[in-house]
Amino acid sequence: MHPLLILGVGTAVVLGAIVVLRINAFLALVGGAITVSLLAPGPAEEKIPRVAEAFGDTAASIAIVIGLAAIIGQCMMESGAADRVVRAFLSLLGEKRGGAA
Question: Phi-psi category of 42—alpha, beta or left, where left has phi over 0 and alpha has psi -120 to 50?
């Protein structure tokens, strides 16, 4: 199967799952990855483990960044800096656009 066709099918699976079926975006992306893996050439017994391995590699590479962001966010909440940032954006954008702030 042509690679661009596989890409199109994977994109359609993700968009269809999110927009039509209203499935969580994470689950839709995993479903799209599995679909692309099944359509791609290669041994059938390695397809699902390949998706799991790629997910694990990605999660491992961003875990430290997410952990540090959580620590910084907690420090900002406890020190009051988060409230100050929100108030600054509210004064900049106005009360009508408070959702965007």
Answer: left
> From the CB of residue 32, how many other CB atoms can be counted at a distance below 10 Å?
20
Nearest CA to 41 among 2, 11, 14?
A: 2
pTM tops 0.70, yes or no: no
Q: Would you list the domain boundaries of the chain?
A: 1-41, 56-101
Nearest alpha carbon to residue 90 among 98, 81, 79: 98
Burial class (CB in 10 A: 0-12, 13-18, 19+), 26: exposed
In the chain, the N- to C-terminal Cα span, in Å, equals 46
Instruction: Summarize pLDDT for 24-79 with one digit per residue, the tens.
Output: 999 999 999 999 999 999 998 999 999 999 999 998 889 989 999 999 999 999 99
